[in-house]
């Protein structure tokens, strides 16, 4: 059995990690990042939303710390905030969208836990992209679902992510 040293939340918040770590109930959790397909997809998605930020009144934040509960801080690959949302060092209001890009070392258990944290926190749109399979999923409390169209959509807005165009960045 492996044991881990728990650290206080204040210590986590006052430290810097490269890459940033998540904080879950006193435990630091490393994030799986750094390989080219993950990085390329993250850049393509960030650029897409950056280019539409004024039109859609959003802020795009790669690797923004999000406090999903008093003892949990997650770091989604990308999140979208409403442009009028208060600008804080750590997002403490649910993002409009949280986007996770799978890395080869991500496990189903850790991914499900992260998605559940976003949804429980109140994030209405959680998207999961798999660069290896070139698939995207809409995450809900009922599970993972393939999008009905070739886009990921934020209902009630003009905000969308064109999957074929985004995945073509990997070619």
Overview of the molecule:
The protein is of the alpha+beta class. The protein has one domain: tt1808, chain A (Alpha-Beta Complex), CATH 3.90.1570. Helices cover 26% and strands 29% of the residues. The protein is built from 5 helices and 12 strands. The strands form 3 sheets. The protein has a 6-stranded mixed sheet with strand order 3-6-7-8-9-10, sandwiched between helices. Strands 2-1-5-4 form a 4-stranded antiparallel sheet, covered by helices on one side. It has a two-stranded antiparallel sheet with strand order 11-12. It is globular and about 45 Å long. The mean pLDDT is 94.
- The H-level CATH homologous superfamily, spelled out, is tt1808, chain A
What's the number of domains?
1
The geometry reads as globular
CATH architecture: Alpha-Beta Complex
Number of DSSP strands?
12
Summarize the structure.
This is Putative restriction endonuclease domain-containing protein. By secondary structure, the protein is α+β, with helices and mostly antiparallel strands.
């Amino acid at each position: 059995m492996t044991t881990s040293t728990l650290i206080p939340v204040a210590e986590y918040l006052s430290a810097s990690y490269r890459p940033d770590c998540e904080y879950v109930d006193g435990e630091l959790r490393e994030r799986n990042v750094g390989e080219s397909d993950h990085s390329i997809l993250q850049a393509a998605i960030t650029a897409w939303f950056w280019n539409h930020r004024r039109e859609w009144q959003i802020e795009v934040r790669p690797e923004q710390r999000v406090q999903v509960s008093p003892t949990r801080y997650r770091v989604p690959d990308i999140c979208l905030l409403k442009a009028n949302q208060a600008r804080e060092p750590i997002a403490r209001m649910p993002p409009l969208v949280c986007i996770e890009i799978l890395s080869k070392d991500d496990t189903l258990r850790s991914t499900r836990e992260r998605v559940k944290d976003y949804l429980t926190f109140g994030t209405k749109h959680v998207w999961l992209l798999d660069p290896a399979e070139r698939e995207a999923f809409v995450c809900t409390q009922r599970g993972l679902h393939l999008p009905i169209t070739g886009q990921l959509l934020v209902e009630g807005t003009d905000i969308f992510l064109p999957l074929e165009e985004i995945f073509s960045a990997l070619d």
